[in-house]
């Protein structure tokens, strides 16, 4: 097998995006493993890899990748939201709620706010 070049890594990353869109997380992971091995600091590749783990129901690896992304980008609302979904799927609702709320605070998108399940304001 030939050595990965920057060009082939970009091609593999884009192909992994397409495979994930086509709901083929295993295929995406095969390509992303090469990209992440070559550039472990690449947050975009790690986020895509986390999504592939999640879609493939590999919750522990997904959780670890989302946490790695958040260590580097603590203000990444999508990563908080996706980690919340991962924890929710693993029946860890209290932990999930924290990340849903962080996501909604960072980016008040309707799906983030709905997942955060903030208590309605009480009449005064």
UniProtKB/TrEMBL annotation:
<keyword id="KW-0677">Repeat</keyword>
<protein>
    <recommendedName>
        <fullName>Tetratricopeptide repeat protein</fullName>
    </recommendedName>
</protein>
<dbReference type="Pfam" id="PF07719">
    <property type="entry name" value="TPR_2"/>
</dbReference>
<dbReference type="Pfam" id="PF14559">
    <property type="entry name" value="TPR_19"/>
</dbReference>
<keyword id="KW-0802">TPR repeat</keyword>
<dbReference type="InterPro" id="IPR019734">
    <property type="entry name" value="TPR_rpt"/>
</dbReference>
<dbReference type="InterPro" id="IPR013105">
    <property type="entry name" value="TPR_2"/>
</dbReference>
<feature type="repeat" description="TPR">
    <location>
        <begin position="77"/>
        <end position="110"/>
    </location>
</feature>
<dbReference type="InterPro" id="IPR011990">
    <property type="entry name" value="TPR-like_helical_dom_sf"/>
</dbReference>
């Amino acid at each position: 097998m030939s050595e990965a070049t920057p060009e082939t890594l970009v091609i593999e990353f884009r192909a992994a995006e397409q495979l994930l869109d086509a709901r083929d997380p295993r295929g995406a992971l095969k390509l992303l493993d090469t990209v992440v091995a070559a550039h472990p600091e690449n947050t975009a590749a790690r986020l895509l890899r986390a999504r592939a783990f999640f879609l493939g129901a590999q919750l522990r690896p997904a959780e670890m990748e989302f946490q790695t992304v958040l260590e580097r980008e603590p203000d990444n609302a999508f990563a908080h939201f996706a980690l919340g979904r991962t924890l929710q799927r693993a029946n860890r609702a209290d932990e999930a709620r924290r990340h849903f709320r962080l996501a909604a605070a960072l980016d008040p998108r309707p799906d983030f706010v709905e997942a955060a399940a903030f208590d309605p304001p009480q009449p005064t």
